[in-house]
Amino acid sequence: TLLSTLVIILLFHHRHPSGCENSAEVERKWKAFLLVTGAKHSAQGDLENQNVIRIMSLFISSLFLLVDLVSADPPSISHHLILLKICSYPPVHLFSSLCLVEHLKKPLEDYMALFPSVRILRTKKREGLIRTRMLGASAATGDVITFLDSHCEANVNWLPPLLDRIARNRKTIVCPMIDVIDHDDFRYETQAGDAMRGAFDWEMYYKRIPIPPELQKADPSDPFESPVMAGGLFAVDRKWFWELGGYDPGLEIWGGEQYEISFKNLKRVAEVWMDEYAEHIYQRRPEYRHLSAGDVTAQKKLRSSLNCKSFKWFMTKIAWDLPQFYPPVEPPAAAWGEIRNVGTGLCADTKHGALGSPLRLESCIRGRGETAWNNMQVFTFTWREDIRPGDPQHTKKFCFDAVSHTSPVTLYDCHSMKGNQLWKYRKDQTLYHPVSGSCMDCSESDHRIFMNACNPSSPTQQWLFEHTNSTVLEKFNSN
């Protein structure tokens, strides 16, 4: 926030209109740089005189966050921008008076007065993301609200496709595709898997799953239905947003809003919307069971007044493909416990490593009094055919990963898409990696674990799981 304060004051103070030739030049430069224009779009439906309100939280840390949005729109579309300035923490006097929040007030407001289509809203105290967005939505008067985070850019013609879907059906909530901008050279990269449906696991983490064949379009640029959205960037008919009750003001921080719109922070969502399915959350996150969700009376009343269907209906009719990737009841694991190497007598160990860190061999812990399931030598060969730290009921979110036939075996974010994280535990006790066509090997001298050409007769390529499920293993190996 302090950096955004500094950036904003420099932009507004040093690009004063006195440096421009005339008011038209001021307006032109402002439009190109600060994302402001002023109201029409005719799509498949009628969106004439359409005001699109763009709500942004100003925790900006880069000039790129102020570029491209409006200049990428067709000239025929106009809209106005609501800038939400969240009350900051007391500033550190690193940059003297430039860091003072007070310094942003009158100079900023005087400059913005030149542009009547821009409104600045300030909170008197830190309200958090959800209530701040609600403040902006309450001030919006246009037919469509477009919510954007401030750390994003837009490409050419980004807005009309969003408005088009709402013009066809006012109850449609539309999300743009979100690509990644490389932090080194700013090139565009698609997210892993490119276009995918939004989903969730049963710890309430947002996930993405492939579009099933029956929902795939002939033209990959065509929109597709998604049961859940990421939550940060979307467009919605303003009246429909309020008919749905807006955001739950009891959501304090980021982490619940992606479910709020789809099926209206964690326990509040579960208690109001998930019916008997909430139990699956509590089974995995027992600390939530006795956590107070606050007063959810108003949210439950809203659900009733909207005549919402059950969450079972949602899972059956809307998110019917989700259990294939994130089943409410976890299928049995193929193997679990320690993974002991036959040749060395040592065990695979994470050493509490961070993502990207290699697995290591260490002296086996079992039998030395440290038998807790959260120790560094407990792993689960899951029903997804990946290997994760933790016991079957408490696996972690990173997996054994290998990128080549000679690479180290590292821990990487689990993506549940097989690939580099697919393993086969064969009858000869080797851990085979189909993508690289190699097997997991190790070195007793330096305790490394790495991939190597398969040699079933080599004891350093033979691994013993503490517990195995022969039925599941046979199923895996028959695929």
Automatic annotation (TrEMBL):
Q: Which UniProt keywords apply?
A: Disulfide bond, Glycoprotein, Glycosyltransferase, Golgi apparatus, Lectin, Manganese, Membrane, Metal-binding, Signal, Signal-anchor, Transferase, Transmembrane, Transmembrane helix
- Kindly tell me the pathway this chain contributes to: Protein modification; protein glycosylation
Residues in the signal sequence? 1-20
Q: Where is the Ricin B lectin domain?
A: 336-466
Q: Which domain of life is it from?
A: Eukaryota
Q: Which Enzyme Commission number(s) are on file for it? A: 2.4.1.-
Q: What name goes with this protein?
A: Polypeptide N-acetylgalactosaminyltransferase
Q: Name one GO biological process term.
A: protein O-linked glycosylation
Cofactor dependence is on: Mn(2+)
What PANTHER family does the record tag this protein with? Answer: N-ACETYLGALACTOSAMINYLTRANSFERASE, POLYPEPTIDE N-ACETYLGALACTOSAMINYLTRANSFERASE 10
Kindly state which reaction or reactions the protein catalyses.
L-threonyl-[protein] + UDP-N-acetyl-alpha-D-galactosamine = a 3-O-[N-acetyl-alpha-D-galactosaminyl]-L-threonyl-[protein] + UDP + H(+); L-seryl-[protein] + UDP-N-acetyl-alpha-D-galactosamine = a 3-O-[N-acetyl-alpha-D-galactosaminyl]-L-seryl-[protein] + UDP + H(+)
Output the SMART domains linked to this UniProt entry: RICIN
Which top EC class applies here? transferase
The family assignment reads: Belongs to the glycosyltransferase 2 family. GalNAc-T subfamily.
- UniProt topology in membrane: Single-pass type II membrane protein
The family database entries (Pfam families) matched by this protein are listed as: Glycos_transf_2, Ricin_B_lectin
- Drop me one GO molecular function for this one: polypeptide N-acetylgalactosaminyltransferase activity
Places the protein is found? Golgi apparatus membrane
The record, for InterPro entries, names: Glyco_trans_2-like, Nucleotide-diphossugar_trans, Ricin_B-like_lectins, Ricin_B_lectin
